[in-house]
């Protein structure tokens, strides 16, 4: 087993597919997937206060050889980036750039299972039974901020908050940006990048 550690963050606006990309990274490279969105929703109700303590608690110990985590959903702000600096040094940051219209369509069609955080898209990843979670049979809901009237404001807010974070990591030379409208077309480039940093534990596969 390889002994190299890797700490990566996947950044992107709501609906960009960063969770899917990070899950594939975890599966292909043996990294632990840490999602701040779930931590913040469960522990802080979506707030930022105490973010660093939550993240520290979620990170596993790092006995060698251990491949560290690929994280999604944070840092969302410059303050969070500084908090993350105090916990671990990132090896690379992946930024997903998705056109506004694509994001708007994805978010407006997105429904979730509140208890688990499972996400469905009514256009390309619908549940087996409309409005019902595949695993539990419980009802799905559409978050307030995924409703069409809220999407534009949400994306603008992300763009304003993320700009200084992206500039910070760009200045450190660890930012890698990928553009496109489909996760399946972006993924091979992400896989190639990661493969140059750490050996995959399984070969690339069709997703």
From TrEMBL:
It comes from the Eukaryota. Transmembrane segments: none annotated. One of its GO terms (molecular function) is AMP kinase activity. Residues 110-145 form the Adenylate kinase active site lid domain. It holds the Pfam family ADK. Keywords: Kinase, Nucleotide-binding, Transferase. PANTHER family: NUCLEOTIDE KINASE. Belongs to the adenylate kinase family. This is KAD4 kinase. It comes from Furnarius figulus.
């Amino acid at each position: 087993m390889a002994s190299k550690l890797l700490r990566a963050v996947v950044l992107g606006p709501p609906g960009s597919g960063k969770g899917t990309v990070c899950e594939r990274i975890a599966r292909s490279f043996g990294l632990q997937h840490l999602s701040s969105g779930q931590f913040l929703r469960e522990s802080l109700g979506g707030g930022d206060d105490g973010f660093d303590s939550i993240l520290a608690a979620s990170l596993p110990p790092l006995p060698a050889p251990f491949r560290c985590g690929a994280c999604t959903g944070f840092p969302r702000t410059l303050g969070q980036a500084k908090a993350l600096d105090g916990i671990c040094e990132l090896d690379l940051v992946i930024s997903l750039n998705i056109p506004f219209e694509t994001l708007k369509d994805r978010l407006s069609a997105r429904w979730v299972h509140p208890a688990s955080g499972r996400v469905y898209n009514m256009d390309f990843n619908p549940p087996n039974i409309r409005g019902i979670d595949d695993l539990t049979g419980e009802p799905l809901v559409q978050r307030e901020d995924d409703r069409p009237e809220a999407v534009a404001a949400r994306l603008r807010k992300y763009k304003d908050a993320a700009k200084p974070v992206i500039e910070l990591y760009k200045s450190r030379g660890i930012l890698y940006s990928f553009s496109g409208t489909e996760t399946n077309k972006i993924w091979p480039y992400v896989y190639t990048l990661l493969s140059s940093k750490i050996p995959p534990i399984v070969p690339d596969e069709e997703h």
